[in-house]
């Protein structure tokens, strides 16, 4: 887990209440655990901190108007230009000196073409608004090949979003009972939704990019019912650190019928061996060939294979 002078829980609450500056918050969800409950946490924390602000909701797949939104835009049947124009009409001007902060919620970025995603977000971005956008991880980005200029090396949509986002909230389901991740994935691929998904308790990886360029990463267990956020250990980092552990003789015991260990006498003899490259390093300039003649060596001043011509 990234070390920081910040309290991870306090930092996470500041992001949820919009008191921490983060222009683009990217929520990565799936069919197993959607971002619906996490969006509710943004609304709850902003109200509890007295930082309640107008909410502009851009819907590509939401049918019912959320009770907390101030303006609701049904973007499913609108073209790109009209969607951007209508969003901007609800936001304060970027040059305004005294304007109330707005929350712009986008229920799915999957519907915006890859070649327009950067333009879309940059045009609605403003010092007076925070964009909270959801991207569905289990939906394939089929249009990533349709890219400007025909450049085959152009990144896909998710890569672009992760690069632009100042905060990334990667949501994972907290499985209960006998279900495991592989089994749930197979069922969802067949559009069979098992019980126990989209719970009030779920896992979340919180990535916050600082102005210095450093990223802070924390794993949380979220309880949306009680609005509690429990910091959990970063097992991925522990696995990386554990993989760098030095080998010891005890690790070699029982692997084969051969004795792979070394005794203290053998270690001492090994340490006393004079290595030729160490002697070569003692010369002041350049390199040198270090060779000691033995009694059986035959040395001639003249080279019998020398070309006489």
Q: What does this protein structure show overall?
A:
It is a single chain. With 309 residues, the chain is of the alpha/beta class. The protein has a domain of 209 residues: Rossmann fold (3-Layer(aba) Sandwich), CATH 3.40.50.300. Helix content is 28%, strand content 19%. The protein is built from 10 helices and 9 strands. Helix 4 links the parallel strand 4 and strand 5. The N terminus is likely disordered.
Q: What is the terminal separation in angstroms?
A: 73 Å
Query: How many DSSP H or I helices?
Result: 10
CATH fold label of the domain at 23-231: Rossmann fold
| Cα-based radius of gyration, to the nearest Å | 31 Å
Assembly type of the shown chains?
single chain
User: Order of SSEs, N→C?
Assistant: HEHEEHEHEHEHEEEHHHH
Q: What's the number of extended β-strand segments?
A: 9
Q: What is the CATH-assigned architecture of the domain at 23-231?
A: 3-Layer(aba) Sandwich
Uncertain residue segments: 1-5, 235-246
Report the portion of residues in β strands. Answer: 15-25%
Biggest β-sheet: count, sense, barrel? 9 strands, mixed
CATH class designation of the domain at 23-231: Alpha Beta
The percent range for helix content is 25-40%
CATH superfamily name of the domain at 23-231? Answer: P-loop containing nucleotide triphosphate hydrolases
Average pLDDT for all residues: 80
The shape is elongated
Name the strands of the widest sheet in spatial order: 3-2-4-5-1-6-7-8-9
Q: What's the SSE blueprint?
A:
Blueprint: H1 8-16, E1 24-29, H2 36-48, E2 55-59, E3 71-74, H3 80-89, E4 102-106, H4 114-124, E5 129-136, H5 157-164, E6 167-173, H6 181-189, E7 201-209, E8 215-223, E9 228-232, H7 235-243, H8 249-252, H9 264-271, H10 276-280
Parallel strand pairs: 1-5, 1-6, 2-3, 2-4, 4-5
Antiparallel strand pairs: 6-7, 7-8, 8-9
